[in-house]
Write a sequence for this structure.
């Protein structure tokens, strides 16, 4: 018998994180609910789960700031990425219809992403803690005038009908998830498209960031992402999260990192992994 992989995620059953777990790892996966990102990551750190799947950015809503608050104490490595298409459904109890529905429960982001549709249908948005939790609540209340905006998986789990599928205003909405593991060794190929992710703080000198990034240009390495953030623990000096289009095993990246270290006070590689074929941002 094949042992099921244990994957921790934030949210309740039917959340988009749950759907991403199933799509990325397959149906032979034990998906474990958690209240917070930190709880999910701690399960991996304590050997109670093999991986954690954490959302890091959304195409329409931008980055997930909570992740950056966890980086300073993170003991895990990014070992993969997954792009999950967000397809919001208007869900309600059996026997309901669009004409019956007065209000829709969902996470504020879910409501914002369906604002135009809700306006057209004259449905009142009501903010809740999460999408799948809203579906669970609607199923429990049993009122045909109430609905939830959530995934089709949430509708299936909580026995709700899909009153209207794909109600998001932007049809090509995706969330990028990262796969976190306790395994710290980088098992990537020089010959496969890879991404290397790092965190650093620049030295206190003139044009430090410009000089720090110069090694990537010199070695013809494309920068895929650069984000600045201020750790909550200090609220002082900015850190930079940079992702580059290269494997940690490539000689070009090794040379670029050698240059980078000259102009940084702290440099931590938080992952080197194969690029998702679905990568769009």
């Amino acid at each position: 018998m094949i042992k099921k992989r244990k994957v921790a995620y934030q949210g309740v059953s039917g959340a988009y994180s749950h759907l991403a777990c199933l799509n990325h790892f397959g149906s032979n996966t034990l998906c474990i609910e958690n209240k917070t990102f930190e709880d999910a990551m701690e399960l991996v750190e304590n050997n109670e789960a093999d991986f954690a799947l954490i959302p890091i950015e959304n195409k329409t809503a931008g980055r997930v700031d909570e992740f950056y608050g966890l980086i300073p104490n993170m003991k895990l490595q990014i070992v993969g990425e997954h792009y999950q298409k967000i397809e919001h459904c208007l869900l309600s109890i059996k026997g309901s219809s669009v004409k019956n529905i007065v209000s829709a429960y969902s996470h504020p982001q879910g409501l914002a992403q369906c604002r135009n549709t809700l306006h057209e249908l004259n449905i009142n948005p009501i903010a809740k803690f999460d999408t799948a939790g809203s579906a669970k609540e609607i199923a429990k209340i049993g009122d045909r005038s109430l609905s939830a905006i959530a995934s089709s998986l949430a509708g299936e789990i909580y026995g709700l009908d899909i009153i209207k599928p794909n109600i998001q205003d932007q049809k090509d909405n995706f969330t990028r998830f990262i796969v976190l593991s306790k395994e710290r060794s980088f098992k990537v190929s020089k010959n496969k498209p890879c991404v290397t992710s790092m965190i650093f703080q620049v030295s206190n000198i003139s044009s430090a960031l410009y000089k720090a990034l110069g090694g990537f240009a010199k070695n013809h390495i494309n920068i895929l992402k650069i984000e600045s953030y201020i750790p909550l623990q200090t609220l002082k000096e900015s850190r930079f999260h940079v992702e580059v289009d290269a494997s940690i095993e490539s000689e070009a990246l090794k040379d670029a990192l050698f240059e980078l270290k000259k102009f940084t006070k702290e440099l931590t590689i938080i992952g080197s992994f194969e690029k998702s074929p679905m990568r769009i941002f």
